[in-house]
Amino acid sequence: MFQSATQHFNLFVYYSFFIPTMLHCRIFTTIAFAVVGRCQAFQFNK
Q1: What's the CA gap between 39 and 34, in Å, rounded?
Q2: Cα(9)–Cα(4) distance, rounded to whole angstroms?
Q3: pTM of the model
Q4: Rounded to whole angstroms, how far apart are CA atoms 4 and 11?
Q5: CA distance linking residue 41 with residue 37, whole number of Å
Q6: Which domain of life, per UniProt (predicted)?
Q7: pLDDT tens digit string along 9-44?
Q8: Residue 1: its pLDDT value, please?
């Protein structure tokens, strides 16, 4: 019982840390692609 509770707690900690990190990386990647795309478009127009 105690071991099961510990596993559930570890899973909870893992997900509560992992999911926001994933979202953060996804947002950061989206912003990075937007910036790179804008820079490439700017250089192309030049």
Answers
A1: 9
A2: 9
A3: 0.47
A4: 11
A5: 6
A6: Bacteria
A7: 888 888 888 888 889 889 999 999 999 998 888 777
A8: 59
